[in-house]
Design a protein that fits this description.
Blueprint (H helix, E strand, L loop, with lengths): L11 H11 L7 E4 L9 H16 L3 E6 L9 H13 L9 E2 L4 H13 L3 E4 L3 H8 L16 H12 L9 E4 L14 E5 L13 E3 L1 H11 L4 E5 L6 H9 L8 E5 L2 E3 L6 H9 L14 H7 L3 H11 L6 E3 L1 H15 L1 E3 L1 E2 L2 E6 L6 E6 L9 E6 L2 E5 L19 E4 L4 E9 L5 E9 L15 E2 L1 E3 L4 E8 L25 E8 L11 E4 L3 E5 L10 E7 L9
Parallel strand pairs: 1-2, 2-3, 8-9, 10-11, 12-25, 14-20, 18-21, 23-27
Antiparallel strand pairs: 4-5, 5-6, 6-7, 13-24, 14-17, 15-16, 17-22, 18-19, 19-20, 23-24, 25-26, 26-27
Helix pairs in contact: 2-11, 7-8, 11-12
Bound molecules: adenosine-5'-triphosphate and magnesium ion (MG).
Length: 554
Amino acid sequence: MSGTPQPTVSNFIRSIIDADLASGKHDGIVTRFPPEPNGYLHVGHAKSICLNFGLAQDYQGKCHLRFDDTNPEKESEEYALSIQEDVRWLGFEWDGEVRWASDYFDALYGFAVELINKGLAYVDDLTPEQMREYRGTLTQPGKNSPGRDRPIAENLDLFARMKNGEFADGSMVLRARIDMASPNINLRDPVIYRIRRAHHIRTGDKWCIYPMYDYSHCISDALEGITHSLCTLEFEDHRPLYDWVLDNIAIPCHPHQYEFSRLELHYTITSKRKLLQLVNEKHVSGWDDPRMPTISGMRRRGYTSEGIREFARRIGVSKSENIVDMAIMESAIRDDLESRAARVMAVINPLKVSLTNFDGAQAREADFHPNHPEFGKRLVPISKDIFIEAGDFAEVPPSGWKRLTLGGEVRLRHSYVMRCNEAVKDASGHVIELRCSIDHDTLGKNPEGRKVKGVIHWVACEHALSAEIRMYDRFFTVPEPDADREKSFLDFINPASLTVVQGWVESCVKDAPPETHYQFERLGYFCTDRREHQPGGSLVFNRTVTLRDSWTKE
Ligand code: ATP
Ligand code: MG
């Protein structure tokens, strides 16, 4: 699959863009991806990135990366840097410089003054409790605050003094003057500025008032000439406010907001707040723990950017609920790795086999990939003692067993046919070693007069390298860990989500750099760890995904 461009799947947003280009409403498109630098990006963001950057690519348009940095207490440079790295790693590049909502703080302030001058914004000093009470409910209209009728001159004066730091945090806000009786609560005189003395990663201590998201987002879009502003469905009810702001200030551009459904993945969570809690409370080793649904976690686990992009293509974009099974992600990853990863042998649960009729040293050349000769070859050495997978031997085989049993034969992958003659046991009856013999006349050809069905993987004890292999299982025990009202999502963490084993791998992987993908034959796809794997030294592999779907079988 990798390398072959996949057909584009159309969606309602593409239809809108096609119509806008055909009608001449726009002669090119500009989209944006607007993360808040308050955490690492996750798989849901990957969907939004593929959508926004993907559209810009397909329509030869532009996509901006704009940080929504309007909540200084929660934002950091580390997050902003990680987000840029993740977008690039996914294979996208933004148009021009990175943009920041804070680039527009002066302009945003100016537009707020404009709204005040038009009688469309006012300073309010209700307490938060009063504010809630005045807002009304879904069934009851709100009521006007006394501050709503403040004269314009007084509003201008108070707003300037808010900016100058004359008032305490939280003591006053600037509100848009829209309609306290609107059936849409977002239009009930929403707060557009608040006082917050917090150090900002870009503007330092210059400001002590910060614009709210709904106010700054639409203006930032307009200032950048965004044509299609794409966001998730929970912002549908905010669109009237988006439009109200742009309709009431002197700005030549009015982007259109379109909403699509959020991606949710079974057995994981896509809430930044909860992901942060997992990190802070050390339920995981960090934001890039391979069990995290973050882009950096998926990357470290061995998911490829091509595979994640293919996943986004397969799930598509719509307005209907988008709870996706992990199997869809895993099959996209598997399909990509199938032709990308070199194949080698590794044994994760070793059982020693001594080959009683083999002496000396020998090695056979084998392709790294059956369909990709360009991947090259390596030597697969065999020695008197080898390891096989303990699970590939059964003393009492179930019916249909094609692997090894006493008196039976299997083919050693890339090598001889081997017969098991004896199982050596310890005092408690566990098989600890097998004594086997090889058929010397079976290298590269079938034995005479009999069929050997099973092929098993193995490594030579003398040559194999010891490696730490980290096996991952789903991180939560239930499909929707944050759906339970009584229990915390933490109660559903799978205690067996990580198993570390010491296994044996062919020596040809010795110098593999971090982030090298392999298929360990019959076991799955594995990737050398980005952080802890040392080429030529201690080898650390993460299991990316098993070879077959292990999710839907239950
Ligand atoms: P926050 O609660 O911090 O705002 P957020 O998940 O909305 O969290 P943002 O940084 O604001 O995070 O998101 C950036 C962009 O990614 C937004 O346009 C948002 O719509 C999109 N996005 C976030 N989560 C998902 C998701 N699960 N599926 C699709 N798009 C998403
Ligand atoms: Mg958001």
